[in-house]
């Protein structure tokens, strides 16, 4: 994870926790640079990512402001802080089984050529991480892949929900790769890319639905290995 990504996560968490309220102006780039001890370019990239996630908007000449979003406390009540219990993880996986297929279908219908190119670039990095058997990088890029699909929907509720749920699920995804190998999940991503290239919302919906169900099934199978 690079510095800009770390800054993004820190600012995102502060927004979700209510440090800055809806409509409130964020500190300037210079102030954030000094407070966080990072470069201005890292702060600027982090703010752009926040804007991509629908969490802030930059107004020319006045600064960056927090947009209306899901209440951080509300979402954190849905997904508990700290170590997730088995039942919590299953509930999150069940929820993703309900929504991920529709999210993929919506994303295909709204995807621009530029966004498709970005998704393909992320997929190439996913393959590179797999080929190098870099499981940490593979997990991070996997999260980025699904986050990008959420962003393509242009729906801030979807984007923010994904941001939080994927953060909590990231350790589960990493454990799946460690246990089952780097190939896990790659075929689904390849078929999703094909569906996006073909602008085939039905295919994307079916593939993502199967992917979400497979993720849930594999987690349950892993848990049975640990606790027979």
Core attributes:
228 residues; mainly alpha; Arc Repressor Mutant, subunit A; Four Helix Bundle (Hemerythrin (Met), subunit A); 2 domains; two-stranded antiparallel sheet; 10 helices; globular
Describe this structure as you would to a colleague.
The chain is built from 10 helices and 2 strands. It has 228 residues and is mainly α. A hairpin with a 3-residue loop joins strand 1 (56-59) and strand 2 (63-66). Helix 2 packs across helix 3 and helix 9 (186-197) packs antiparallel against helix 10. The longest helix has 26 residues, at 201-226. The two termini are 35 Å apart. The model is unreliable at 71-82 (pLDDT under 50).
CATH superfamily of the largest domain: GntR ligand-binding domain-like
Strand content: under 5%
The helix/strand series, from N terminus to C terminus, equals HHHEEHHHHHHH
Which residue ranges are poorly predicted, with pLDDT under 50 across at least 5 consecutive positions?
71-82
Shape: globular
Largest sheet: 2 strands, antiparallel
Strand order of the largest sheet: 1-2
What is the CATH first-level class name of the largest domain? Mainly Alpha
Tally of strands: 2
Share of helix, binned: over 70%
State the end-to-end CA separation: 35 Å
CATH topology name of the largest domain: Four Helix Bundle (Hemerythrin (Met), subunit A)
Radius of gyration (Å) = 18 Å
Give the overall average pLDDT: 85
GO molecular function: DNA binding; DNA-binding transcription factor activity
Keywords: DNA-binding, Transcription, Transcription regulation
Domain HTH gntR-type: 1-69
Protein name: FadR family transcriptional regulator
